[in-house]
Design goal:
heterodimer, A: 3 domains, 7-stranded mixed sheet, 7 strands, 63% helix, rod-shaped, disordered N terminus, B: 617 residues, alpha/beta, Rossmann fold, 2 domains, 8-stranded mixed sheet
Chain lengths: 630, 617
């Protein structure tokens, strides 16, 4: 008992020590941290936050702001909040402290529905936290409680659930929570859970009210010992516990009239400590203690902020991104092969048209007799490609068979290929696109890259206009093959150049030579050519043209089979290129963005820690440690 | 009905509800339902089971329940008429139930399988704070008194449900509360409007228990006002009884007592004890009737609350449904892909062979071949022209991906889609989590194996199908000689008539003779168009049939298997489905049996709670 009598008291000499401007320096730091964490919370991020994490961080940011504002004053206010179940005597306790009916107390439960704020008259109400300003205000003029605000809260366990919400709204304001229990309720689950939830954040002192009901002299563990045991297992080795019977003090105060402290009631049960509680509140909590509690509260807040931020730190996915990229490269090239096959397959019915087109392109370089001849043969050979779709029956057939494109009557490469790509898309490629996204996502996940991160960018890449892309790929590939055919390189170029030169000169030369020979014979030798000799003028150049043409066909074939191979290779490369461009960058980008977020969180954690360390170095050696467990 | 049948049915019901309770405890958001399920399972086990087995209705059980420190032990002492329970200032001291038997050899202690579930009886006296699944039985030792006031009753002192430690032992409270015929609900002046005990009271009323409220610790002067206040605040908000009526709950006040009164319930405290005993005796005027009421109400509670009890599984079922939807969506896209990627472009080349055979059939057999050969020679120019024109006009086909490729790729994307979905939702519910974890290792390989087997069957069936359709085309004509001969004769006749007519009308032979080959070509072309039409019709039928073949042999069985997969292989979801199917059935059976038995007893079914409760006030 003696030891306990001493605990609440501290030498008044300390009141005179010049307080360091610790808390005022802290205020801007806290605001800075709050801004930083808010900015981070509000920014768009890749790495998802769960609802709980987000709510926790937002609550912490709110607390940072609140603390920053509360500390930025000459004399910070200490908020002491009574918390406990209905009927344990919170209001009676406050009334006994006030020496009169400040808060409503009665036998009906729950009694207190509106919180009561008990504060010194010198404190302007606008200095109170907004949450407190909404409560019932009761001012006093007791010097000992000048910097302290005592709040009576609604219960936490009655059938009136709104009371619980009110308490929860108020709790963040508290610096010290006075956990009030009675013989019945000192470790009820609802209150205990709230205590466990809040203990990392605030100072806790304990009151066991209705002490007369506890101290019955019956056998068994006394509630205070039981409670001390519970607290010990929660890490409160030496908690501040006051055993009170507030009702008796209140009754005594009611009969006491006149100024000064109400007297000590006559028939107090043994071990009653209400006087101690009052002493502690009035004298024990000096300015030094208040600052220490405040600083410690901030320290706890910072520690929790650090932990919370650490908990939402995104992982470093750079290595995984590499692995995913490697896996995707393989998948995408396989996919490109299939897509190219499908696109080439769609062109298959138009092989004669393509051949025709290539022949015409190729023959553009011929002039004179060779040009006339090739134009004629080409027209004969590809008569069908013009004829085919002019017959209406064929269109009907195409409809019946499905999967065909009606060839345009005019050879228009762009339009035609677009239609082909559309058909291919409708038949095969669209479904494959959706399937591809799932494949990629699953592969990413098996390589350790969370699906949630890849899902959005991959899906939006899948939503690009792939039909247009494949149309362009087909056109480009065709153009490339055409260029390769019309502008070959190496030996082909030599052969082609030679043949072209011959084709453009030899027929004419042979015509002129034959004609010259006949004329020479006629004029010089006087021989009149017979009919056969006359036809030689036509036959010999024709022969030359035919031989050359056969040579060209043999050496420089423009057959679908040959075009197809080259076209397929070029198209495969194009499609692979398109797919790679759309998808391959995603893992790297996401990993970089996540890494960036990770750095931001690291910076936040580091800064929180810095402020926390700064605070820890300067913390006063005030005696407040018993208010905090381990 | 055999007792063993009752036993197994009721035992099954109790077990199923117990399993659901454990299932709820494993899921934090459902743990609030665990208590209710425990009560339901204990009702089946402790009340209905023994009743159906025809066990003695004596003793009646009275359970004293309430929040920590509300004064349960004091109330037990007052019921017993002597200080038998340790009243202890420590809140939540009592951790397991203790039964107090009236003095004298009144009845046998109930002993049957499943009595009080997992709790076993302590043989030696131990303090009430032993925190294990046990119960104690003690005999009330009153000296000198005559017959005990509650000679038909066992009084149960129960643990509380409010302290932080109560989560560990509230199941024991539920077990005894379910057993009880009458419940004494103790509420102190501090506790009476607390949420947790009030919810418990609501649950008891819903379960149809007869409840007597003992209000404690108020100042004697406040007592009447306090009782009135309690009636309004708490009793006014009670739920309806299982039968639908408003519950009548008597209230007895036990104000703050002096130590002397507390120490001598039968003497100094008698003025408080007597009203309490009266209320209790009213509830149990006849053991048979009281027990029948307890049982009937329990049965009614189970049959009305049965669906509500199963509500806890709603989320699981919704997720299961979502999984099945995902599987179905995958199946639809599988079939769609098959149709578009393969079937739409497939020509079934084998069919052309049968078409040619059909044409061949129209040619004459035997000696007629000579005429046929002559006509064939006549048609030579026509054939050449036709082949050239068709060569010019027909196009090569679109190159299809092979059927096997399309099917396997489609399967792959079906599974990929499901896996992606499972991964996406893995954090939302254990079902998806389990799917995501076991997808790669268990489900996908199995699914692929199954598909491979089904694919083999499918391949066999499809080639049979094609062959069959083709053969049917030819056989239809071959097996109908009359039609065949008519067609052959008709064609031959037409050809010969044309040739004859041309020769006859254009004699002497001139260039108009050319009309003959043109004519026979025209008949042939006509025959060919006709067979082509028949063949195309058959082709379309094969295509349609192929689609249904894929659905029936490949996708439907696989989709069914995939959809059921989470609920197979001994998972908790399998059990869950089983339980959900079984419980309503069992409850219905149980209800019927109870009703029959209550009727058979001849005991007129008393009203759920006698409306005599007002006397206690």
């Amino acid at each position: 008992m003696v030891e306990e009598e001493n605990r609440g008291l501290s030498p008044p000499a300390r009141e005179d020590e010049a307080p360091q401007p610790l808390l005022r320096t802290l205020a801007p730091l806290l605001r800075g941290l709050e801004r930083q964490s808010r900015a981070w919370l509000d920014s768009r991020r890749r790495f998802p936050l769960s609802m709980l994490q987000r709510a926790e961080l937002e609550g912490l940011a709110d607390d940072l702001r609140r603390q920053g504002e509360a500390l930025d004053v000459e004399k910070p206010l200490l908020v002491i909040m009574l918390m406990g179940g209905t009927g344990v005597g919170k209001s009676t306790l406050l009334n006994a402290l006030a020496g009169g009916a400040v808060a409503q107390a009665s036998f009906t439960r729950p009694t207190t529905r509106d919180p009561v704020v008990y504060y010194h008259a010198s404190v302007k109400t606008d200095r109170l936290d907004p949450a407190l300003r909404m409560c019932r205000l009761a001012s006093h003029d007791r010097a000992g409680l000048e910097q302290k605000i005592i709040v009576d809260t609604p219960d936490l366990d009655s059938n009136d659930l709104t009371n619980r919400d009110k308490l929860r709204a108020l709790l963040p304001v508290a610096d010290i929570v006075l956990y009030v229990g009675s013989q019945e309720k000192y470790h009820d689950r609802l209150g205990w859970d709230l205590f466990k939830e809040q203990r990392q954040r605030r100072a806790f002192a304990f009151v066991l009210n209705k002490w007369d009901r506890c101290n019955t002299g019956e056998s068994g563990l006394r509630p205070d010992e039981d409670l001390l045991g519970d607290l010990k297992s929660e890490g409160f080795e030496n908690p501040l516990l006051f055993r009170t019977t507030a009702q008796l003090w209140l009754d005594a105060a009611k009969t006491h009239s006149g100024g000064g402290l109400p007297p000590r009631p006559a028939d107090l049960p043994e071990g009653e400590q209400f006087g101690l509680l009052r002493n502690w509140l009035e004298l024990g909590l000096t300015r030094l203690e208040i600052e220490a509690v405040k600083a410690r509260g901030v320290g706890q807040l910072l520690a929790q902020m650090g932990r919370a931020a650490d908990g939402v730190r995104p992982p470093d996915l750079t290595a995984e991104a590499e692995k995913v990229k490697a896996a995707w490269t393989k998948t995408l090239s396989d996919e490109a092969d299939v897509q190219a096959d499908v696109l080439v397959g769609t062109l298959e019915p138009y092989q004669t048209e393509v051949e025709h087109h290539f022949s015409v392109e190729d023959q553009a370089r011929y002039r004179g007799l060779m040009a006339a001849y090739t134009r004629l043969t080409t027209r004969l050979r590809y008569a069908g490609s013009g004829l085919r779709d002019r017959i209406p029956l064929m269109g009907l057939k195409a409809k019946l068979m499905g999967g065909r494109v009606e060839t345009p009557t005019e050879w228009n490469l762009g339009e035609f290929v677009q239609k082909c790509a559309e058909t291919a898309g409708e038949r095969v490629l669209d479904q494959r696109g959706t399937a591809l996204i799932n494949r990629l996502l699953v592969e990413g996940d098996t390589k350790g890259f969370p699906l949630a991160l890849l899902s959005d960018p991959t899906t939006s890449a899948g939503r690009l206009n792939w039909r247009e892309k494949s149309t362009r790929a087909v056109i480009d590939a065709l153009a490339e093959v055409e260029r390769r055919v019309t502008h070959p390189t190496g030996a082909r170029k030599l052969v082609r150049g030679t043949l072209g030169l011959f084709a453009n000169t030899l027929p004419e030369i042979s015509l002129v030579a034959t004609a010259g020979y006949l004329l020479w014979n006629f004029f010089v030798r006087g021989e009149v050519p017979d009919l056969f000799q006359m036809t030689l003028v036509v036959l010999i150049p024709l022969l030359v043209v035919i031989v050359l043409h056969l040579l060209i066909l043999m050496l420089l074939p423009v057959r679908w089979a040959a075009i197809r191979g080259e076209f397929r290779a070029a198209l495969g490369a194009r499609v692979a290129d398109e797919l790679g461009r759309a998808y391959l960058a995603i893992p790297g980008d996401v990993a970089a963005a996540v890494l960036d977020e990770r750095k931001q969180v690291d910076a936040l954690v580091a800064e929180t820690k810095q402020v926390g360390d700064w605070l820890a170095e300067r913390q006063q050696a005030a005696r407040v440690s018993e208010l905090y467990g381990k | 009905m055999q007792p063993t049948e009752h036993r197994s049915a009721v035992g099954q019901l109790a077990d199923d509800l117990r399993w659901l309770e454990d299932h709820c405890r494993k899921q934090p958001e459902l743990s609030a339902h665990a208590g209710t399920l425990r009560l339901a399972s204990a009702l089946a086990r402790n009340v209905i089971g023994p009743f159906l087995e025809g066990l003695d209705t004596r003793p009646l059980h009275v359970a004293v329940v309430g929040g920590a420190g509300a004064g349960k032990s004091t109330v037990v002492n007052f019921l017993a008429g002597a200080v038998v329970a340790e009243a202890n200032p420590q809140a939540g001291f009592t951790r397991h139930p203790t039964a107090f038997l009236p003095p004298g050899p009144g009845f046998a202690w109930p002993s049957y399988i499943g009595f009080l579930g997992p709790m076993h009886r302590l043989t030696a006296d131990k303090p009430a704070n032993v925190d294990e699944d046990v119960y104690q039985v003690r005999r009330i030792d009153t000296k000198g008194e005559g017959a005990h006031a509650l000679s038909e009753f066992v009084i149960w002192d129960c643990p509380d449900m409010t302290t932080w430690a109560s989560e560990g032992y509230v199941a024991r409270l539920m077990e005894v509360a379910a057993l009880a015929d009458v419940i004494v609900y103790v509420a102190s002046d501090e506790r009476y409007n607390d949420e947790v005990p009030t919810q418990f009271l609501h649950l008891l009323v819903k379960a149809g228990k007869a409840v007597v409220v003992a209000l404690t610790k108020m100042r004697p002067a406040d007592a009447p006002a306090f009782v009135e206040h309690f009636r309004q605040e708490v009793l006014g908000r009670l739920p309806k009884l299982p039968g639908g009526g408003a519950p009548a709950v008597p209230v007895v006040a036990l104000p703050q007592m002096t130590p002397a009164e507390r120490a001598d319930p039968a003497g100094a405290g008698a003025k408080y004890r007597v009203p309490l005993l009266n209320q209790l005796l009213v509830q149990g005027e006849s053991t048979d009737a009281a027990r029948a009421r307890t049982v009937a109400n329990a049965a009614k509670y189970l049959s009305t609350a049965g669906d509500g009890l199963l509500e806890v599984a709603r989320r699981d079922l919704a997720e299961l449904e979502a999984w099945k939807l995902a599987v179905t969506a995958g199946r639809v896209s599988f079939e769609d892909r098959y149709r578009r990627e393969y079937l739409s472009g497939e020509r079934f080349q084998r069919f052309d062979r049968y078409r040619e055979r059909l044409i061949d059939l129209l040619e004459l057999p035997g000696a007629g071949r000579v005429i046929g050969g002559l006509l064939w020679a006549l048609r030579t120019p026509y054939r050449w022209t036709r082949d050239y024109v068709f060569g010019l006009m027909s196009r090569p086909d679109v190159l299809n991906l092979s059927e096997q490729t399309v099917l396997h790729e489609s399967l792959k994307s079906w599974l990929d889609g499901l896996q992606a979905e499972a991964l996406r939702k893995a954090s939302a519910h254990p079902l998806w989590k389990q799917l995501a974890v076991r997808f790669e290792s268990e489900m996908a390989p199995h699914a692929r194996d199954r598909f491979a087997t089904e694919y083999r069957t499918f391949e066999l069936k499809e080639s049979e199908d094609l062959e069959g359709a083709g053969k049917a085309l030819v056989a239809g004509l071959e097996q109908n000689p009359a039609l065949l001969h008519t067609l052959r004769a008709g064609k031959l006749g037409l050809d010969l008539t044309i040739v004859g007519a041309v020769i006859y009308f254009t004699w002497p032979p001139g260039w108009l003779l050319l009309l003959a080959p043109i004519g026979v070509s025209a008949t042939h072309q006509f025959a060919e168009l006709a067979t082509r039409g028949v063949a195309e019709g058959a082709r379309a039928r094969v295509r349609a049939h192929r689609e249904s073949l894929v659905t029936n042999t490949l996708t439907a069985p696989l989709a069914h298997w995939l959809g059921e997969w989470p609920t197979t292989g001994g998972t908790s979801f399998e059990k869950l489905q089983l339980v959900l199917r079984r419980v309503p059935d069992l409850i219905r059976q149980m209800d019927e049996r109870v009703t029959a038995k209550v009727k058979a007893l001849g005991a007129p079914k008393p009203p759920p709670i006698p409306p005599t409760g007002e006397r206690g006030a």
